[in-house]
């Protein structure tokens, strides 16, 4: 474990990501690995002031300890809180950026782009002009770029600033335990591996319905929408791990080669019929009143931003030909549903004389909390000739680290295994581009759903949460 003095310079430090996920994730890392030496410098347009920033860091890090009590922070995390500082300024401006970089004195600098993608690109242009400090690591949040062309240009730009091994394209779903557990579950036992193909699997669903709504993020989200925000990045990465061929090892090269290969085989067959979009209207989630999406501050209704997207992807290879992968993610839904569901085919023949078989077997992998459930047809309890489904549940060993703790640990250790390689970032754009084009041309209607509901009427993926 490196004990070099590392400075994490967070650009976009007053945004949602920094407080809600990044800082709490770092707190879990420092709790588990207190010998790390880290200084955090926050930078953003808004002039928060040192006290407000330090309070934010303290509150966010304490939140990771579950009790909100800052007194519980370990010595390393407390040191990070005590030494952190904040700089207000525009990181897209070369002069301000240079001054910001010169104010940092450390052995190693990680520049974390917690910024909307178009702003990240402008900062990279400024960085190309002023130059990055020797050995600096660029950690760039998803979505990487705003389109396929943009991602290609951004790849070329960042590779001019630092070598590829100093570029970490972040996708924190690759730090989710359930997602990492897919590798062990698929490749380290003899039970599932032989069933993992088109002969046994009829359909795969990767679902990420959230109860959170816009949460003041219009500046980023209203130009992104659910497809770019969740499907283009996170859910395609999960698809890749569900679908990859067995790699020889799980080192960065083998794993990322396998991910690249499967993404290259993936496509949306018909962008007008295989993808749907919708936007929430006012409603209630628990005891929370949620306004109409278009009434939220900073939203421009004319952009037609979707808050729920569903896309069916096919993987054109021997293993998966004909198997639909349905990816869906929505905001302001009535219930959290964050899972991958593997639907198995019907058996070729069920002996005559059995009754009651009415649903196919399935494996449900729940993200957060990490668990799995196998819904397996078995003999009925009261009557052995009337079949029913038994549910076998298991906990998947959750780690000590939150996903952003995992991601940051891999950055600090220089291990790119949990980062997205340049080609994969581009492939993900290539897969969704036909859908983005069809939506831009208004070839697919923008449906509506009530905040707190299950989704627009008639969408098959609305189904009750499977557990
Ligand atoms: N929030 C989340 O749950 C997650 C977000 N992400 C990714 O993180 C990125 C940021 O998202 P999020 O935090 O939600 O968005 P926010 O809009 O909450 O935060 C972005 C921040 O960047 C600031 N900013 C804009 N322009 C500049 C600039 N020129 N110089 C310095 N700071 C600037 C914004 O300031 P101002 O508000 O004043 O414009 C704002 O504080 C996105 O790429 C998103 O995909 C990834 C995983 C989870
Ligand atoms: O990247 C993002 O992810 C979050 C969901 O991740 P989680 O770890 O908070 O479950 C999503 O809410 C956000 O819109 C998106 O930008």
TrEMBL record:
- Annotated Glucose-6-phosphate dehydrogenase NAD-binding domain residues: 10-181
A Pfam family this chain is assigned to = G6PD_N
Per UniProt, NADP(+) binds at 142
Q: In which pathway does it act?
A: Carbohydrate degradation; pentose phosphate pathway; D-ribulose 5-phosphate from D-glucose 6-phosphate (oxidative stage): step 1/3
User: Which terms does the record give in the GO molecular function aspect?
Assistant: glucose-6-phosphate dehydrogenase activity; NADP binding
Q: Which residues form the active site?
A: 234 (proton acceptor)
| Residues bound to substrate | 172, 210, 229, 331
Organism domain of life: Bacteria
The name of this protein is Glucose-6-phosphate 1-dehydrogenase
Species lineage: Bacteria, Bacillati, Actinomycetota, Actinomycetes, Micrococcales
């Amino acid at each position: 474990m490196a004990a070099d003095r590392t400075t994490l310079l967070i650009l976009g430090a007053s945004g949602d990501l920094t407080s809600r996920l990044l800082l709490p994730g770092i707190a879990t890392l420092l709790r588990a690995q207190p010998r790390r030496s880290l200084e955090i410098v926050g930078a953003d347009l808004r002039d928060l002031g040192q006290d407000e920033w330090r309070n934010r860091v303290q509150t966010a890090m304490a939140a990771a300890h579950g009790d909100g009590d800052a007194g519980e922070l370990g010595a390393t995390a407390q040191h990070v809180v005590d030494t952190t500082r904040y700089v207000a300024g525009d990181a897209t401006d070369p002069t301000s950026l240079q001054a910001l970089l010169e104010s940092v004195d450390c052995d190693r600098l990680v520049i974390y782009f917690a910024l909307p993608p178009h702003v990240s690109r402008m900062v990279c242009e400024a960085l190309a002009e002023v130059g990055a400090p020797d050995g600096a690591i660029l950690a760039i949040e998803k979505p990487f770029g705003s389109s396929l062309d943009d991602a290609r240009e951004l790849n070329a730009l960042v590779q001019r600033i630092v070598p590829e091994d100093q570029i970490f394209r972040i996708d924190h779903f690759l730090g989710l335990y359930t997602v990492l557990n897919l590798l062990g579950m698929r490749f380290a036992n003899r039970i599932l591996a032989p069933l993992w193909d088109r002969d046994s699997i009829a359909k795969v669903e990767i679902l990420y319905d959230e109860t959170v709504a816009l949460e003041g993020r219009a500046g980023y989200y209203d130009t992104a929408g659910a497809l770019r925000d969740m499907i283009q990045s996170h859910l395609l990465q999960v698809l890749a791990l569900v679908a990859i061929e067995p790699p020889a090892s799980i080192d960065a090269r083998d794993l990322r080669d396998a991910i690249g290969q499967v993404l290259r085989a993936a496509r949306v067959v018909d962008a007008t019929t295989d993808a749907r979009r919708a936007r929430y209207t006012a409603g209630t989630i628990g005891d929370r009143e949620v306004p109409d999406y278009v009434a939220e501050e900073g939203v421009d209704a004319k952009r037609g931003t979707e808050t729920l997207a569903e896309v069916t992807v096919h993987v054109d290879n021997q293993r998966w030909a004909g198997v639909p992968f349905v990816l869906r993610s929505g905001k302001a839904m009535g219930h959290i549903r964050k899972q991958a569901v593997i639907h198995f085919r019907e058996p070729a023949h069920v002996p005559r004389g059995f009754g009651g078989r009415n649903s196919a077997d399935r494996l449900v992998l729940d993200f957060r909390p990490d668990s799995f459930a196998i819904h397996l047809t078995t003999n009925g309890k009261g009557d052995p000739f009337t079949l029913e489904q038994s549910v076998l549940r298991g906990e998947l060993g959750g780690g000590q680290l939150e996903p952003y703790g995992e991601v940051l640990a891999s950055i600090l250790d220089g291990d790119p295994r949990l980062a997205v390689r340049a080609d994969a970032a581009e492939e993900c754009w290539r897969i969704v581009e036909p859908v983005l084009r069809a939506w831009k041309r208004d070839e697919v209607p923008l449906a509506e759903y009530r905040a707190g509901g299950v989704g627009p009427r008639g969408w098959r993926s609305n189904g009750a949460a499977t557990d």
